[in-house]
Design a protein that fits this description.
Alpha-Beta Plaits; TIM Barrel; eight-stranded parallel β-barrel; elongated; binds phosphoenolpyruvate; binds manganese (II) ion
Length: about 325
């Protein structure tokens, strides 16, 4: 962090600022130019509030030279992180596809979809048991019964399961779950992030909030990692913009940028990003081409009768065709 001192600043005030910095464990290095005086801060500035320093009378402005995230930062961890999800390795050049219905509805649905997506090449199964719905009158998920059905489909197919945790009080039910999803609406539920960071080492699939910046997404990953769980997978699932033609606006360019900023794997969710089943294939192909580490896709055996997100759910046939295409695209780019 560099502090730029106001012109004609009082010497005493500069000395007071140096004392303040030193009291916070920071070594202040003053460089006096003919036009400007700067203080370079050496040491751990993560506990220093730049806004507070900037508000001081003597300070012109404050410039951060390092990102506020450390554990998620590629600077301190140059190699890609590879996250073990119940035996499936996510990141580091592989392409992992998580597929399944938006919400777990019945044994027949889960087993049928799990078998179909496995046959088409999916490496993990998704399905929501606890659903974050905009309306309290919409289907809220089967809860504990949904988790039981996910376990059953896992036993049938051997696919590791991914499902959303909305409230940490339900965590004990997640014993057989391989990856804990933190949904877009909970990306900044800091208490929940600290709980999944400190109570488990299970991988956390962290979805980007609808209006979250990349720095906010990385700071949320930081919450989980700084609390003790390094196993975080990021997910771009579309953000809110002025455009209403699609459910969300897929911010695909963040994939290479996140890879540059962080060592964590990055998945793309083409289903929530677009809201339409026919858009899922082209967007997924683009995600594969731009270098995403995989996808999380909604697939339903009977989309018109799905209890949640039917319009964006692929049929197993659509999913199988898409997987073939992704395979060809990845082959062409290799
Ligand atoms: C989901 O994956 O079913 C979901 C609700 O996603 P998001 O949190 O991205 O809206
Ligand atoms: Mn959904």
């Amino acid at each position: 962090m560099i502090i730029i001192i106001k012109k004609n600043a009082d010497e005493m005030q500069v000395e007071n600022l140096k004392t303040l910095l030193a009291s916070k464990g920071i070594e202040p290095h003053v460089s006096k130019g003919s036009l400007q005086t700067l203080i370079g801060c050496v040491g751990d500035v993560s506990h220093l509030d730049p806004g507070l320093i900037e508000a001081l009378d003597v300070v012109e402005s404050v410039q951060r030279i390092q990102e506020p995230y450390k554990a998620a930062n590629r600077k301190f961890h140059p190699d890609d992180s590879v996250i073990d999800c119940g035996g499936v390795k996510v990141g580091g050049g592989s392409f992992s596809v998580i597929a399944g219905p938006c919400s777990v509805e019945s044994e027949e649905q889960m087993v049928c979809v799990a078998r179909a997506v496995k046959a088409a090449g999916a490496s993990m199964l998704r399905g929501g048991a606890f659903k974050p719905r905009t309306s309290p009158y919409s289907f809220q998920g089967l809860g504990a019964e949904g988790l039981r059905l996910l376990s059953l489909a896992k036993r049938e197919t051997g696919l590791p399961v991914v499902t959303e945790l909305m409230d940490f009080k339900d965590f004990d039910l997640f014993e057989d779950v391989d990856v804990i999803q933190i949904g877009a609406r909970n990306m900044q539920n800091f208490n929940l992030l600290k709980e999944v960071g400190s109570h488990t080492k299970k991988p956390v699939l962290l979805k980007r909030g609808m209006s979250a910046t990349l720095q906010e997404l990385l700071m949320s990953a930081e919450y989980v990692m700084a609390s003790g769980n390094p196993n975080v997978i990021l997910c771009e699932r579309g953000i809110r913009t002025f455009e209403t033609a699609l459910r969300n606006t897929l911010d695909l360019g963040v994939v290479p940028l996140l890879h540059r900023l962080s060592h964590l794997p990055v998945l793309v969710d083409p289903s929530h990003a677009t809201g339409y089943a026919h858009m899922v294939e082209p967007v997924s192909v683009a995600a594969a081409a731009i270098g995403a580490d995989g996808l999380i896709v909604e697939v339903h055996n009977d989309p018109p009768h799905a209890r949640c997100d039917g319009a964006q759910s692929q049929t197993p046939e659509m999913f199988a065709r898409m997987m073939e295409k992704i395979h060809r695209v990845r082959g062409a780019l290799a």
